[in-house]
Amino acid sequence: xxxxxxxxxxxxxxxxxxxxxxxxxxxxxxxxxxxxxxxxxxxxxxxxxxxxxxxxxxxxxxxxxxxxxxxxxxxx
Length: 76
Fold this sequence. Notes:
Blueprint: H1 2-10, H2 14-27, H3 35-68
């Protein structure tokens, strides 16, 4: 497979040039992202991630931590 990539990258054959152009077209493809749509999506994703991390910490990590150690709290 590595040989194929090298051949396409270095060859001057018409088919290799076509493959490089196709790759550049797909790799450079982009869609306009209006702030009106992306800002609420970003806020939603951050809220979901924050909620997930909080629930994981409270219901999974802390109970496991408390089981692992015999004493929890301030040491005197």
